[in-house]
């Protein structure tokens, strides 16, 4: 087990190193941040001062090595716009995005799995058909349109929930959280639901498909023939065997929810990392963009590592080298 975990860590480290090259070089060859950030009326001397201040006068390989050295010491560069460490600015926005992503994935898990399980166990029931039709809508409707619709219905017409912002927060472990206050929870409902709709449909359809595949297998028939209660057959034998692909999808989708919550954060004015990266792209703030992408890469790598560890917990046969 220790050897398997060490091998996974080495693979993760290699992926992160490769991504530093791809991300840094890819961002560095796009556009000219000096032309975006300084006045068009600036003379050549001012331009040269800005280029030197941003460190753009050095060769690309020297800039990369400087970035890599800084990254190893927890410094992902200094924002051209804010003139502060990029990592510090991103970490200030990260709790809001994490809070939104966790709530969305909890909704997807606790709604998608039971509904998908029911649709798989009773595929011909009228409610199961309604559930599957609803999942098609969840896949088909664009997130930005659903977000606007939710605001129009629940915020403008009914006035039940606020249309944007994060609301009142309460500090816990030195970080402000919305879910700890009633006002914050009210602000959290609509963006979390908007972000979760696609994921609910995805989890639902996956669980239904896995259930339909596992139900006819011999070990399920044997469990029923032995007279085991139906609840034990489902929760002990069926669920355990369908959870590996479900855990994989939920883990990977959690990373994608964090990385691609840009639209939802923009529609609901949620002050998270998504809004920050959009603003940084507009002004070509390279250090901020590189830092954001590297954090997302690191998140995906850690999530994949955790998913691999969960594999071995759910099915000990899934081991490296076996």
TrEMBL record:
Domain ABC transmembrane type-1: 94-307
Residues passing through the membrane, by range: 12-31, 96-118, 130-155, 175-198, 242-269, 289-314
Keyword Hydrolase: no
InterPro entries xrefs: BPD_transp_1_N, MetI-like, MetI-like_sf
Pfam families: BPD_transp_1 (PF00528), BPD_transp_1_N (PF19300)
Recorded superkingdom: Bacteria
PANTHER family membership: ABC TRANSPORTER PERMEASE PROTEIN, DIPEPTIDE TRANSPORT SYSTEM PERMEASE PROTEIN DPPB-RELATED
Family classification: Belongs to the binding-protein-dependent transport system permease family.
Protein name: ABC transporter permease
